[in-house]
Specification:
Length: about 525
């Protein structure tokens, strides 16, 4: 399937970076050209994104990574989600978990993930790797439209400006203004020179405990670790798809694919294909809300969920002529996240997503550090019957997920991802089907029209506006939209590129050539060396 694109794919043999912010791409390329590994370049890209996209991710946030080692043909999942602090019990939240302030945060996992990645893949020193981010924090960078729009969007719903003052960022910035974050630069420098302990046992940890009036303890920080484990893997068509294990909802993506594999998607009409994929999405999300939690605190049997009998039963629940309107009520999820990918000259690659959850996370920075905290604690349930019920040292269910695909011989073939909260696994579902079933190249795939189905809400005004709606970019033909409406879908048009995603994609040819694509819905791009 071929379609016109706004830009050409990027071809490279010696390394590639694709991200939502050009300065982060440049940082990753710089590290690759200095002899750094894909892991080194990914840490550099991650750190720069925290400096230049603080509304989406920060040192006080989390990360999930799927990595591929070409030499070993080995895939790993890095789970950088933080635990609830010792104080976080349900009885502390009689009126619900507030979205702002330190009581909305979990222990940050991003920095710990940097050091786990470095342990596995690092070639350069951390001071070399963090140098680009440190430079942008210390000496400044020019604010782009995305930076300005995120601040404006946050202030429109939460007008207090204290968090921007704490970060050293003027709330009235204009495009092109210089943004300098001196406290953040000091924190990055300490981490670069002193290592992981600077964050989890040193001055930064002490400042977090003091500023949060003991809500966080030194033990909460010192005991945190990023988990490194095998990814969830399934076979789809002729490929193995690797996704994030719980507490990530990457299980949804794999279940969607297993259900969809029973249909000849490549030869269906577009209306039939969208209908079946939306119905598979609904089934997988229902399973997510009944099963997903922290596997270190609850029992989860994903082997049973992914079994042939279970998938066949769920597939049989799809009516090819009619939409299922009996959907579960789901929780409201944050959508401020950033995704990128990196590959090096040796064929190693990382699929990386990081977040502070909602825009500017907790809207609270650790005094004197320039570090913004996440508000991931709001991802817990206060229902004691939920597998995602809040408890100290438990990790909340996460929307964050990244994926890769390998051939039967173990070689890497695809890697990709996108921000977008609950839209993530829907978008990734479409990306994989577009690549494998419809044979789109990465740039065609990044630009292809997309849909997003938003279920009944857990209470946000945004979700209430789009209750039970199937939103489709208006580049999809009217006849297709009408066909979907006739099956019972509540169809609503988005603008031509109005879908809530910012896709980055990689394909690796059998001869080792990289092909990358980047979504025009965001300000980033792909670049190679």
């Amino acid at each position: 399937m071929s379609q016109s694109t706004h830009r050409s794919p990027v071809y490279s043999r010696n390394g590639i970076v694709a991200a939502s912010q050009p300065l982060a791409v440049s940082a990753g390329i710089e590290i690759l050209t200095k002899g750094g590994s894909a892991g080194d370049a990914a840490i550099a890209t991650s750190a720069v994104l925290a400096v230049v996209e603080p509304g989406a991710s920060h040192l006080g946030g989390d990360a999930f990574v799927i990595s591929h080692s070409a030499g070993k043909k080995k895939n790993l999942a890095f789970n950088g989600s933080g635990e609830a602090p010792h104080s976080a019990c349900a009885d502390q939240f009689e009126n619900g978990i507030d979205h702002h302030g330190y009581k909305s945060a979990t222990v940050p996992g991003l920095v710990s993930t940097w050091f786990e990645i470095h342990k596995e893949y690092g070639l350069l020193s951390m001071d070399q790797i963090l140098a680009p981010a440190l430079d942008y924090a210390r000496n400044g960078f020019a604010a782009n439209s995305g930076f300005i729009n995120r601040i404006a969007g946050h202030l429109s719903t939460f007008p207090e400006t204290e968090v921007f003052q704490s970060l050293g960022i003027a709330a009235n910035l204009k495009i092109g203004d210089l943004v300098i974050q001196s406290d953040l630069a000091d924190s990055l420098e300490a981490i670069a020179l002193e290592g992981r302990d600077a964050f989890y046992q040193g001055e930064i940890a002490r400042k977090l405990v003091e500023a949060s009036d003991g809500w966080f303890s030194l033990r909460d920080l010192a005991e945190h670790r990023s988990r490194v484990l095998p990814p969830l893997s399934i076979k789809y068509r002729d490929y193995f798809i690797h996704g994030q294990p719980p507490p990530s909802q990457g299980m949804i993506l794999l279940e969607e694919l297993l259900i969809a594999e029973g249909f000849d998607l490549a030869n269906l009409t577009e209306a039939d294909r969208i209908h079946l994929m939306v119905e598979a999405k609904k089934i997988a999300f229902a399973d997510r809300y009944s099963l997903l939690g922290d596997p270190e605190h609850i029992d989860m049997n994903l082997e049973e969920l992914f079994s042939s009998a279970s998938i066949a039963h769920r597939r049989s629940q799809i009516d090819v002529a009619k939409a299922n309107l009996g959907e579960p009520t789901i929780s409201n999820e944050g959508s401020d996240t950033t995704y990128f990918l990196v590959a090096d000259r040796d064929g190693n690659a990382l699929s990386w997503i990081q977040s502070v959850f909602h825009g500017f996370g907790a809207s609270w920075a650790i005094e004197g550090t320039g570090i913004l905290l996440n508000n991931r604690l709001t991802g817990f349930s206060l229902d004691p019957e939920s597998p995602n019920f809040i408890a100290p040292r438990k990790r909340p269910a996460h929307t964050l997920n990244a994926w890769s695909a390998t051939r039967v011989d173990g070689s890497l073939v695809y890697m990709g991802g996108t921000p977008g909260a609950n839209i993530q696994v829907q978008s990734n579902f479409q990306l994989i089907v577009n690549a494998i079933d419809l044979k789109m190249n990465p740039q065609e795939n990044a630009e292809a029209p997309r849909w997003q189905h938003l279920n009944k809400s857990g209470g946000s005004s945004l979700d209430e506006k789009y209750e039970g709606v199937l939103q489709i970019e208006n580049r999809v033909e009217k006849e297709i939209q009408q066909s979907l409406s006739a099956r019972g879908h509540s169809v609503e048009e988005l603008s031509a590129y109005g879908h809530g995603s910012a896709v980055q994609l990689l394909e690796v040819l059998p001869n080792g050539t990289y092909i990358a694509g980047s979504d025009p819905r965001c300000e980033g791009h792909a670049a190679g060396i």
